[in-house]
Amino acid sequence: MRFLQACRREKTDAVPIWFMRQAGRYLPEYRRLRSRHTMLELCRRPDLAVEITLQPVRRLGVDAAILFADILLPVEPMGLKLDFVKGEGPAICPPVRTARDVARLRRVDPEEGLGYVLEAVRLLRRELDGGTPLIGFAGAPFTLASYMIEGGPSKDFRLTKNMMRAAPALWDRLLGKLSVVIADFLRAQVAAGAQAVQLFDSWVGALSREDYERFAQPYSRRVLRAAARTGVPVIHFGTGTGPFLESFRDAGGSVVGVDWRTPMDEARKRIGPGRAVQGNLDPTHLFLPRRLLAAEVRKVLRGAGGRPGHIFNLGHGILQHTPPDSVRAVVDWVHEWTA
């Protein structure tokens, strides 16, 4: 399987390609399901999660499937209420802001609290039948903590940064708990059949290098080391990591995801030869006319230099109104041009 070979920096017959958010709302078959079910229903019903995971595999010919789920699912068995508000995104209640709030958070037995996710993994392995590798995933401690403190998405992370600076001991207790839950969850996904896992640090670009190294890196490192001990490839992805890409690399992972803000040739130099790289087409380029889109795809491939250990992906997830035919075209070009 060329995806797993590339994760191990082995020579492949073509550059493998998959997309973050490849299963989701840009696909009409997904929208039909979404019109009948809430987001949480789609995640909690293994049969629906399996179907959504497989939709882009059937349509696009990608080299890996990524489990359909959400990074915030662990907050529920930890004792918080999770909802998805139309037009606003996820909402977590009550937010976690005091020592009492942190003390109430529970450690999660993945089979008991997130068994529906693990059942989806088991079903998917049977459905994929060895033809396409399956990626499991979880949110990184900093990103999950940000959602829990802010109560949802944030533009400025004011409350999160305030806890970091004004109550560092409380911050450490919160991220210590999250590190354990996330590591357990990733290990359980591998035990259920995931052949690689990705740690998403979606909000980490809100930090300076100094703050990343003090308040986020140590906890991501714990999770990534625990995941690495399972023996499967571990992808470490964050957005806005350009100012501290070397520190992000040093946190761990056999593959480092790169967003579109750092050119791929620069990223490969800074990450060094000991890691595979993943990325990094700007998701908005999928809206370009084909001629211009093709040029951007070639630019990423040139930046990767044709060396083993490159997995083509976007610099973040597929956007809502992306034309599916453009996504398929990128898959076909990457395979054709690198074969």
Provide a short characterization of the protein structure:
With 339 residues, the protein is α/β, with parallel strands linked by helices. It has helices at residues 2-7, 28-34, 39-44, 46-60, 99-104, 110-113, 115-128, 141-150, 158-166, 168-192, 209-228, 245-251, 264-271, 290-304, 324-338, and strands at residues 65-66, 81-85, 89-93, 134-139, 196-201, 234-238, 255-257, 276-281, 310-314. A hairpin with a 3-residue loop joins strand 2 and strand 3 (89-93).
Descriptive account of the structure:
Strand 2 (81-85) and strand 3 form a beta hairpin. The model has no long low-confidence stretch (mean pLDDT 97). This protein has a seven-stranded parallel β-sheet with strand order 1-4-5-6-7-8-9. Strands 2-3 form a two-stranded antiparallel ribbon. The chain is built from 15 helices and nine strands. The protein has a single domain, classed as TIM Barrel (Alpha-Beta Barrel), CATH 3.20.20. It is of the alpha/beta class and 339 residues long. Helix content is 49%, strand content 13%. Helix 8 (141-150) crosses helix 10, helix 11 (209-228) runs parallel beside helix 12 (245-251) and helix 14 packs across helix 15 (324-338).
CATH architecture: Alpha-Beta Barrel
Largest sheet: 7 strands, parallel
Share of helix, binned: 40-55%
Q: Which class best fits the helix and strand makeup?
A: alpha/beta
Intertermini distance: 14 Å
- SSE string: HHHHEEEHHHEHHHEHEHEHEHEH
Q: What is the CATH class designation?
A: Alpha Beta
CATH topology assignment:
TIM Barrel
Radius of gyration: 19 Å
Can you list the strand order of the major beta sheet? 1-4-5-6-7-8-9
Number of strands: 9
Based on CA inertia axes, which overall geometry fits? Answer: globular
Sequence stretches where pLDDT stays below 50 over 5 or more residues: none
Strand content: 5-15%
Taken together, the total number of domains comes to 1
Quaternary organisation of the protein chains: single chain
Please, what is the average pLDDT?
Answer: 97
Number of helices: 15
